[in-house]
Amino acid sequence: MTRVLVVEDDPQLVRALVLNLQARHYGVDAAPDGVTALRLAAARQPDVVLLDLGLPDMDGVDIIRGLRGWSRVPILVLSARQGSDEKVAALDAGADDYVTKPFSMNELLARLRAAVRRTEDTPADPAAALVETEDFTLDLAAKRAVRDGQDVRLTPTEWHLLEILVTSPGRLITQKHLLNEVWGVSQSSKTNYLRVYMAQLRRKLERDPSHPRYLITEPGMGYRFEG
Ligand code: CA
Questions:
Q1: How far is the C-alpha of 80 from the C-alpha of 41, rounded, in Å?
Q2: Which residue, 44, 51, 52, 122, has fewest beta-carbon neighbours within 10 Å?
Q3: Best CA proximity match to 95, nearest among 221, 217, 198, 220
Q4: What is the CA(174)–ligand 1 centre distance, in A?
Q5: How many Å lie between the centroid of ligand 1 and the Cα of residue 185?
Q6: What domains does the chain contain, in order, with CATH numbers?
Q7: Helices 11-23 & 105-120, crossing angle to 10 degrees?
Q8: Ligand 1 centre from 33 Cα, in Å?
Q9: Is the pLDDT of residue 84 over 80?
Q10: Which whole number is the average pLDDT over 42-48?
Q11: How many other CB atoms are there within 10 angstroms of residue 149's CB atom?
Q12: What's the rounded Cα separation, in Å, for the pair 128 and 111?
């Protein structure tokens, strides 16, 4: 049974989440504040954490940092706030994904399943080195990209960027993370690097680069590969 830790201080929302999760045969623990959340996370070893960022006793980002000190459990953030700064801070602290309130229960459950599935994927599997879409195929081990039967030439930087995105399908990767990984910089002033390289990758791989289907921009936040 997949265990979910729900960290949320709104009792009505907790009730709705618990009912919906139990109806789908998840085991559920609920914590109304950060101290309880950290205690339950250690005691119950959940498979996934749903975390509200606005809690009475602690900042949600501090809870993520606390969990990441010892656990790789997927963390799905529930954020009421519209601004992207807090979501980016949560993702950079180690959250896996976020859902903005109000959310549909179906969307939340889909994101939850995806977060759990990602932890079950075995990265050592050689088949995982092959990424196949309707429009192109990537062999990550051989560093080979093929589109319409033709080899596509990618620069080492393009490969690096692409590899980070395609090995976490569906997951939002922040600009800061990509800049750090690929260029070793974290200044947001360098986000134009990203725009340039993403545009190149789309020109090389997407059927309609101005309406990308695989390399998706999350405005102000980062990028996502949809496989
Ligand atoms: Ca709250």
A1: 23
A2: 122
A3: 221
A4: 24
A5: 33
A6: 3-121 (3.40.50.2300), 126-225 (1.10.10.10)
A7: 60
A8: 9
A9: no
A10: 94
A11: 6
A12: 21
Span from the CA of 114 to the centroid of ligand 1 (angstroms): 24
How far does residue 60's CA lie from ligand 1's centre (Å)? 10
Q: Based on DSSP, count helices (H) and strands (E) in the chain, helices before strands.
A: 8, 12
Going from the Cα of 41 to the center of ligand 1, the distance in angstroms, rounded, reads 18
Q: What spacing in Å lies between the alpha carbon of 10 and ligand 1's midpoint?
A: 6
DSSP 21-59: HHHTT-EEEEESSHHHHHHHHHHH--SEEEEESB-SSSB
Average pLDDT over residues 162-187: 85
Residue 34: closest CA among 75, 3, 1, 2: 75
Spatial distance between the Cα atoms of 162 and 43, rounded to a whole number of angstroms? 38
- Which residue, 196, 178, 176, is CA-closest to 186? 176
Q: How far is the CA of 146 from the centre of ligand 1 (A)?
A: 47
Contact between residue 7 and residue 49 where contact means Cβ atoms under 8 Å apart: yes
Tell me the two tokens of residue 185. Answer: 């910089």
pLDDT of 97: 86
Instruction: Check residue 187 and give its pLDDT.
Output: 64
Question: Taking the model in full, what pTM does it have?
Answer: 0.64
User: Token pair of 96, please?
Assistant: 């896996």
- Asked if residue 124 lies in contact with residue 130, where contact means CB atoms within 8 angstroms, the answer is no
